[in-house]
Amino acid sequence: MIVAMQEKATEEQIYAVIVAMEEVGVDVHRTTGTMQTILAGVGPTAGLDLTKFEMLPGVLHVHRISAPYKLAGRAFRPEGTVIEFPNGAKIGGQQVAVIAGPCAVEDREQIFAIAQCVKAAGGGFLRGGAFKPRSSPYSFQGLGIPGLEVMREAADTNGLAIVSEVMEIGQIKEMLPYVDCFQVGARNMQNFNLLRELGQGRKPVLLKRGIAATLEELLLSSEYILSGGNYEVLVCERGIRTYETATRNTMDIAAIPVLKKLTHLPVVADPSHGTGRRDMVPAMAKAAVAAGADALIMEIHPNADKAVSDAVQTLYLDQFEKLVAELRVIAQAVGRTL
Ligand code: PEP
Ligand code: MN
């Protein structure tokens, strides 16, 4: 159930409603936006008479949530979630964020050159995997913590926030000092134990759509994190598996406006994995911004063809710079900045 409080509701009134909700056995999640406080009650509300809550002082309206996800639904935060990172960069507001970096952190020279390029292009976020989920166990598996150490140095030198993939619960603690946002990869979208554990923390999580997941399944996965009290989740369209073989994955651009409608969570688009082809990345990046994405995550590398992973979909630095300039025009056309 959702209880929307009146704009002028007092703290005492809000507290009384929380107590009344807890009395009937629901878990209360609170969010206070610029206009009003919303209380989401998760739990046994099926036979409950909601008029009882409607009559409490300070309550504007009460309704049941019909969607299977409760906290991810837009009603919990109608104005949308804006996530602010330690470097001051935000995702979810009027400005479209740019997250860029290599598929995998390879060495100091590589990650410093990339970080400098991201900074110069006006991006706020450096991506890069240190723990890599590769399709083959014989492929490069990532540098691990030493990779994150050098990435942190490169990010700090350039005032960037770090997004990096966590593959299992055991990695969370050792990654915490280095990352500003945990990425959960497509292959782990339904690793529910990992999601629950990330919900216990207070570090933002970028959750990628599984290769065969519906958008409802993606939002239910985000719910595993949100229900732990970590409301800083970003959902990411990165292409799905279809019968089409011309691209590595099929970038579902329609997922972007659908997600924007269903959820308050910021929506990220990944045209690199979405296409798997360097020559198709710019078109899909532009389409994603036009479709309403709050951020783009893209793979870039100074020597893209020699990248140890995902080389064919990785942009050269000059291609990235040119693309960002073009994206600014698209952003402006749809009432955003970038
Ligand atoms: C990546 O970002 O490099 C990655 C492995 O992504 P995905 O989980 O979307 O395949
Ligand atoms: Mn990759």
Q: How would you summarize this macromolecular structure in one to three sentences?
A:
The protein is of the alpha/beta class.
Describe this structure in words.
- The protein has helices at 11-23, 51-54, 108-120, 145-157, 169-175, 192-200, 215-226, 255-262, 271-275, 281-290, 317-333; strands spanning 2-5, 27-32, 37-42, 59-63, 83-84, 90-91, 97-101, 125-127, 161-165, 181-184, 205-208, 233-237, 267-269, 295-299.
- With 338 residues, it is of the alpha/beta class.
- The strands form 3 sheets. It has an 8-stranded parallel β-barrel, surrounded by 5 helices. The chain has a 4-stranded antiparallel beta sheet with strand order 2-3-1-4.
- α3 packs parallel to α4, α6 (192-200) crosses α7 and α10 packs parallel to α11 (317-333).
- The two termini are 36 Å apart.
- The protein binds phosphoenolpyruvate (PEP) and manganese (II) ion.
- Manganese (II) ion is lined by residues 103, 273, 299, 309-310.
Mind sketching the topology for me?
Layout: E1 2-5, H1 11-23, E2 27-32, E3 37-42, H2 51-54, E4 59-63, E5 83-84, E6 90-91, E7 97-101, H3 108-120, E8 125-127, H4 145-157, E9 161-165, H5 169-175, E10 181-184, H6 192-200, E11 205-208, H7 215-226, E12 233-237, H8 255-262, E13 267-269, H9 271-275, H10 281-290, E14 295-299, H11 317-333
Parallel strand pairs: 7-8, 7-14, 8-9, 9-10, 10-11, 11-12, 12-13, 13-14
Antiparallel strand pairs: 1-3, 1-4, 2-3, 5-6
The site of phosphoenolpyruvate has 9 residues, from loops.
